[in-house]
Amino acid sequence: MLSTDYLDSIASLRGDAGSFSIPWPMPGKPDSFPSFDSLAEWRAFLLQFDLNAGIPQIVSAKFERAQKLYVLAWLDFDLIKAGELVGLTALELALNDSYGGKELLRRRQFVTEKAKQEARPVRKGEKWWVENATFADLLKHMVEHDGLTDGQVPMNQRCGSPSRVIGLLTGTTISSTTPIDSCSPTAGRGAIVYRSGDEIVTCYYVHQNALSLFHAGAEKDFNPRAVVSSVVTETVFYAGLFRKIVNELAREATTRLAPPVIDPQDDDEETRKEERIKRLGILRNSTFLNLAVDTQVTWPPVETLVHFEGYRLILMPPTREHTTSFHIDLVGQGITSENAVSLIKRLLSLMAWCDDNFAILQEGWSGNPVPVPKQNLGFATAYHWIFDRRLPSSREARKALALYREGRNAEQNYFISYAILSYYKIIELKFGDFEGDKVREWIAANYAALKSEELLADRVADFERERSNEEPQKYLNKACRVAVAHSSINNPSDPDELPELRRLHVAAHILRALARRFISQELGISECPYDGS
Asked: Are strands 322-323 and 20-21 parallel, antiparallel or unpaired?
């Protein structure tokens, strides 16, 4: 119990500084903001939350320290935070005293039974887990194994209208005790516009604690544009995105995931090593080719073994110290380093095509299958990485994919002249060496289709300004392909000049779209990375 002498000395320091307000649940009003005009009021309020005399001394001493810090908040409100932290410490001590032994026994029985069912010894990681229950684990134990309910929480018993505390203890809900106004810049809103019969309806979603919207008729007078902040960021998702998500989820549901090389849940280091050697088929004389990859195509988030064209390839994701990489056992699979590089490039060509992004195979070395050290590279992973494709049987299609990857890589690395040539050569594949007229006819026929695609509207508008009155097929041939491939007098191109560089980038975007259209429609190559084609 705090002494009155200590409390009186605090009161004398603050003097006459006005009322003291604090958010605190009160009977009948959990979202209350009570005010205190003197330390005597604040003291009387705090002392009603004293502990039972039977509580262990180590816990009650910590709780009393938290009370002192709350009292000192009369001088400086920031000390409330210190009081909260010490209060949490007292709670953790009490939980350890009440549930620590029970949780230890429960965990020991759990891992012993699991190891028995799997016919193996208890692993090192499991032993560590048994001995190291966290504060969060003990809070969960209080709910899941001791039956604590919202109705038993003292704050709910004192204030009525039980708040949802249990979800905060188990981690199933986030903390949000402060009422949020619907116009607060931190509130966040959402709206779904949908059709109901012949009527177009807008349904608004706001924060669950937006108390200003609890009154009757709020759904009619709510103004989604009434905000406090001077700047609002809005993100609009159109119906096409949701249709694409539905289609992708439907296809993923029928596709088998590639297994990780190492189980990410396995904490035992020795078991991980043994399992990795077994899954990779590493032999005593294995020699792996390890190659770095600079890429923006989607990549598995963990070390993953894939089968491609009869060979086993390992894909490793980047870390702080290592970059994205490919690994293949040259000796164990009987493949030369030259053929291995070609195989990996073929796979990268397919991946670059499916993701419409660049993938550059870089240098490496032969030895053990270890991550490739490299500086940070930009990159994307998928939570579940799915890839199921085979090489096209047509030599023409394989060449088109290789040219597309080369063009994408060149464009990404600012070799824009080479990108234009690569994309243009894809369209030339169908027509032979001396069929320039047919190439231009194909471009003219398909450029009209590009103009109707909404996602290309800005690119097409830029291209229209650049080509002016010249026909698109002639402009792409003479002012772009010929200009970058030859030292043309009529169509000069100096990539050191910024206007020319910008012009070529605009043309490259259009040629890339035409090349993708050619590969998908003329050669019949699917864009899906896991449809097995």
From this structure: unpaired
